[in-house]
Amino acid sequence: MDPADHLMWSVSSDGLVQLWASEGGGLVVVVRSFSPDIMLTETGKYVDFGDIQVHEILKDAVEKNILPGTGVSPQEFWSYLEKLLAEFSDENAALLAHRDELQAAIDEWYRDGCKEDQEKFLKRIGYLVEPPSTKTTISTRNVDPEMSLLAGPQLVVPVDNARYALNAANARWGSLFDAAYGFDVVPGRPRPGGYDPSRGLAVLEFAFKQLDSILPLVGAKWSELASIWVDSRGQLVASTTKRKSTGLKSPSAFIGYRGNASKGDLLFVHNGLHILTKIHRNSPVVSPYELSKVDSIVL
């Protein structure tokens, strides 16, 4: 098995090597490059593998947690990484330098008052290019959907800092209610001095419209629901305030749940992204909607 099938890497502008091992969905960061002029302050020992130095924490993570079961030995892995760095680091550095040139040109365009048409300007400096005239294919295998398909935030954190890793994982989730309440995606601004009930109601109506758009119901709207939960067969069931039974137009969008009908979570998927509706029947939110005790949290 070729180690390249399980490896993606990049080098940042400060020489920091970022290494992704796609097998098993793990994300690892190499914290030191082989460049002798790069000095980092992380504590711990580095282990020599040819011309590169690898932090012992990363070495243990790769050799004990990532490589087992892949058919790639530690010797193969580190040898191949060394070859990758030797072959592509100069090219990567040139690309990073070009990125700096593009950014400098864009900064100057803003300082000059944005006089030139933006699209024409970006095409002139090579930031925007014409689509290729022929179809292309990518042959890299075993790349996780997390990196190859999902357009979500990508955060790189030190593997030895649990707090950073936890914050990075949680950063993938955000409350739709919180975002809509504090920003102008919903017209107007909340009144100062604590929770604004009228603003909260507008946010709730906005959230229901979003759910109607991405998780449409059969013959009903989310704002009309009186209850929604899972039956004994694990199927999603819902009823309106007029006691009409309904469900999702696309039942496969419902993929999981936890808790119960009084306090629980329903997990949905739409275009590869996940939506978690948190149901809390004892919530203090006041609204004319029976199903007002729901928070939509979007991944």
UniProtKB/TrEMBL annotation:
Residues 195-263 form the Malate synthase G alpha-beta insertion domain. GO terms for molecular function: magnesium ion binding; malate synthase activity. One of its GO terms (biological process) is glyoxylate catabolic process. Residues 62-111 form the Malate synthase N-terminal domain. This is Malate synthase. GO terms for cellular component: cytosol. Pfam families: MS_N, MSG_insertion.
